[in-house]
Amino acid sequence: MLIIAIVGDITPSCGIPKEEKSRRERAAIEEMCKLLGGGLAAEEVKELWLDYENNASVEANLVKDFDKVEMILQALEYETSHGKVLNEFYESTAGKFQTEIGKAWAAEIVKRREETGGVKNVQ
Length: 123
Fold this sequence. Notes:
Distance between the termini: 28 Å
Radius of gyration: 16 Å
Number of strands: 0
């Protein structure tokens, strides 16, 4: 995602306040819209980003859930391959999934984590 390329991959362990993360992302969207030269494409990008940020549609909720799923799946892979414990990634997403598929996938990842010896009791 181009926003990550501009802002960086801000994770829970970075300690960056939510307001600052949002400010950086808004600035990145503005930069992207300038690179697109304005016009309809730039407006569509901005509208889709606002939809995502404001949880304004089922699609936005699904994309947010997929983003969180991808993050904890990467954490599981890292824990498994490097023997690390990355509770903060699971804790930062616990209870925040908005769609049934997001909840199901997150539950499966947590189950696999427990089966492979990961830390239990992360809701």
